[in-house]
Specification:
- The chain is mostly helical.
- It is built from ten helices and two strands; from the N terminus they run αααααααββααα.
- It has a two-stranded antiparallel ribbon with strand order 1-2.
């Protein structure tokens, strides 16, 4: 049994479902999530040198014993203790989202981070290394605040929507034909 059969693409739902199946090894879940996220080969090679650390972390998350803030702290500590880990917040928050049974730790990548920072008054919720890169110095408190903002936005939407839906909307779509939200965000300095 694998994460996805060869005829089916990896989707958010298939990854969530697979992470909940104990028969699928933690290693398979780790690499499926990173593949879904589009991890580049060089980063994957660096991560592979410390693969055992990340497989163990995914296992801890899948057990349901860590909340999102604890999961972030475990990942943050791993990144800062294992040099050339090949992974930063934009990727390890994908692990948190998919591997944790609650799926309530949202993906803090450049687009969701830029969106949250743009929508919230006051200092940025998420520290950015550059406009397009989430800083590895964001700690578990930054991440918890980020998740709380997404949940608050979901509560404010009428009719009410899920935080998962809000996170996907904040991510939006890009490429040659970016969606309206991405165009608006970029045009307005977000």
């Amino acid at each position: 049994m694998g994460v996805s059969d060869s005829a089916s693409p990896l989707t958010r739902q298939s990854l969530k479902d697979s992470a909940g199946l104990p028969a699928i090894p933690d290693r398979d879940i780790l690499w499926a999530i990173l593949a879904w996220g589009g991890m580049k080969r060089d980063a994957a090679r660096r991560l592979a040198t410390n693969e055992d650390v990340w497989v163990q972390i995914v296992g801890q998350m899948r057990s349901g014993k860590l909340d999102r803030q604890q999961s972030y702290r475990v990942c943050f500590d791993a990144v800062h203790s294992v040099r050339a880990g090949g992974i930063g917040p934009a990727y390890f928050t994908k692990l948190i989202y998919f591997a944790s049974p609650s799926h309530n730790g949202y993906i803090m990548d450049q687009w969701t981070s830029r969106s949250v920072n743009f929508l919230v008054d006051g200092p940025p919720v998420v520290k950015m290394r550059t406009q397009n890169h989430v800083s590895p110095m964001n700690d578990d408190r930054n991440y918890e605040r980020f998740c709380q903002v997404i949940e608050a936005l979901a509560t404010e939407c009428k009719p009410q929507v899920t935080p998962d839906y809000v996170e996907k909307c904040l991510f939006s779509t890009g490429g040659k034909e970016p969606a309206d939200w991405r165009r608006y965000l970029v045009a307005n300095g977000g």
